[in-house]
């Protein structure tokens, strides 16, 4: 399928750079809706500055966030109020993840940086029986459906950026400062690997160039 004209893409890129907003945080409330009202322990993989960790802490007895970037992990600790049942550590996923088990595991915009099968297997092994895994990920557009969904997100993306920044230019949100790279795997390949490692998993393409995965361990 033909992509958007190059000049239009450049214009949109300049507009989005001037009016940034956090596409990942946009899905935090959706993540919370997939989870029980109360649970014991949670692990957030690729926690960044800890925004989701602090939201999870309102429902959990304890939450642990891990990230490979020590600078961002240090900032997450600084932003977290004292006395909160939250901890952060520097670790490389999937091999360096704490053993668990956890009642909830979340992973936002991180899975495409990791070896997919190994990461999903690590999440599965650290999830307690009856626990919930929720992933918000990125995928490489390949099909007509992918490109149509991406095109459908262009105008809402610009409108939300304009509204959130009240029409003014702004710096990128602090939770979006981690190193990143484009996704390399198409949605169909992610789905095939996920359904092999996590039978019964649910996957969906989403607006704003994201996909979601939810799985509850039997």
Short summary of the structure?
This protein is 36% helix and 23% strand. It contains seven helices and seven strands. The chain has a domain at 25-139 and 182-216: Rossmann fold, CATH 3.40.50.150.
Tell me about this structure:
The model has no long low-confidence stretch (mean pLDDT 85). The radius of gyration is 18 Å and the shape is globular. The protein has a domain at 25-139 and 182-216: 3-Layer(aba) Sandwich (Rossmann fold), CATH 3.40.50. A 7-stranded mixed beta sheet has the order 3-2-1-4-5-7-6, sandwiched between helices. The protein is of the alpha/beta class and 218 residues long. Helix 5 packs parallel to helix 7 (187-197). It contains 7 helices and 7 strands; from the N terminus they run ααβαβαββαβααββ.
- CATH architecture tag of one domain: 3-Layer(aba) Sandwich
Low-confidence stretches: none
Order of helices and strands: HHEHEHEEHEHHEE
Quick one: CATH superfamily of one domain?
Vaccinia Virus protein VP39
Radius of gyration: 18 Å
Q: What fold name goes in the CATH topology slot of one domain?
A: Rossmann fold
Distance between the termini: 40 Å
Largest sheet: 7 strands, mixed
Overall pLDDT level:
85
Helix content: 25-40%
Oligomer classification: single chain
Note the overall shape: globular
CATH class of one domain: Alpha Beta
> Strand pairing plus helix content: what structural class?
alpha/beta
What is the strand arrangement across the widest sheet? 3-2-1-4-5-7-6
Number of helices, where a helix is a run of at least 4 consecutive DSSP H or I residues: 7
* Tally of strands: 7
Tell me what portion of residues adopts beta-strand conformation: 15-25%
